[in-house]
Amino acid sequence: MKKLSLLCILTTGLLLGQGNKNTATALAEKALEKLIVEHKAVGAVGGVTQGNDMEWTASHGYMDFKNSKKANTTMLTRIASIAKPMTAIAVMQLYEKKLIQLDDPIQMYINELSNLETQGITIRQLLNHSSGIKAYASKKEFKDSKNYNSLTEAMHVFIDRSLHNTPGKSYHYSTYNYVVLGVLIERVSGERFEDYMKKYIWNKADMKHTGIEKYGKNYTNKTKLYLKNKNGNAKQVKKENNLSNRTPGGGFYSSLEDVLKFGQAVLNNTLIKPETLALMLQNNGLKKDGNPYGMGWFMYGSKPNPEEVFGHSGGQTGASSQLLIIPSQQKVIVVLCNTSDVWEHVIGTAAELNSIFKKE
Q1: Strand ranges inside the chain, DSSP E
Q2: Which of 127, 238, 302, 332 has a CA-to-CA distance to 185 between 20 and 30 Å?
């Protein structure tokens, strides 16, 4: 995924008051439409909430171009790494219940992680990507079609590999950190990861259209997947990749409304306590370039308060996504797209929506 700072984007743009809602809606529609017209994405949806009010939602393009099915605001899409803050909050719920401590060595709970290199890894380091666990070893692994029947089985793909860095010494983004955290949730809670997420995250946030994508399963109203070819034009993915090797960090499907509800649940302290969220948003200084990373969250605000805007981006086969949360305005912004390799434009669209719907 390309690196792109939001610091300048989020502080520029047209400021619109509540009395200019029609103008704001028109500008928002145009911003979303640019993803299709200018950046050659196939389909996209976007939405903004403030407090408990839905300010705006819209869709553009197609969910199935071949069959002329237009994108709609209720369609299901892959949300890629927006799964990470959901899983991170699940871990922090266990922390609140005093079932784990953040600086506990992970092998206290997962005895398979007992080789000399992984012995020093803590739960905190897994959450903030400083464990040293490497990312996908190859493009083939990223596009894996093999099905893993459990998170433990998926974890065995990488647990015996050498580390990228000494645990806790530097930032190295890897979805595999969150596979380990998914196993942790299962071992500590005694529940299957999917069952735990449904009971304590999705149901609590009233997310009725979110789940773990099952390879080969047909879902009603789910978009097709698209990627860019060498000429920059989008084409449908011939064979969808299997997400079972990365479920807790990037294996969920959802809808625009559900991701907005997740953001609202974070703001309303429905899932975790305010002080727990504040702990997740602490900057440990390990990420030296781009936006800081806490525990499951990117922080996009300006210094000295980067946590004033936080969220997560995502990019994988057939998906580019962005979630932004702005606590001072009780605002949530979501943009979901069914096309790979347009992440930088999706994040730009989300930032533009923040400027359009910014209160004076």
Answers
A1: 43-50, 53-64, 69-70, 77-78, 211-212, 226-228, 234-236, 252-254, 298-299, 310-316, 319-326, 331-337
A2: 332
Both tokens of 9, joined, read 């984007």
Burial of residue 329 (number of CB atoms within 10 Å: 0-12, 13-18, 19+): middle
pLDDT tens by residue, 92-132: 999 999 999 999 999 999 988 877 566 789 999 999 999 99
Amino acid at 286: L
Contacts of 341 (CB under 8 A, 6+ apart): 227, 228, 315, 320
Q: Give how far Cα 55 sits from Cα of 8, 33, 266, 359, Å.
A: 24, 18, 18, 12
Alpha-helical regions (H) of 228-360 = 247-250, 256-267, 274-280, 343-356
Which strands, in side-by-side order, build the sheet including 211-212?
A: 77-78, 252-254, 211-212
> What DSSP element (H or E) covers 39?
none
Q: Coil, strand or helix: which one is 247?
A: helix
Amino acid at 13: G
Rounded CA separation 173/156 (Å): 19
Dihedrals phi, psi of 39, to nearest 5 degrees: -105, 5
pLDDT digits (tens, 9 = 90+) for 5-46: 454 445 444 444 444 678 999 999 999 999 999 999 999 999
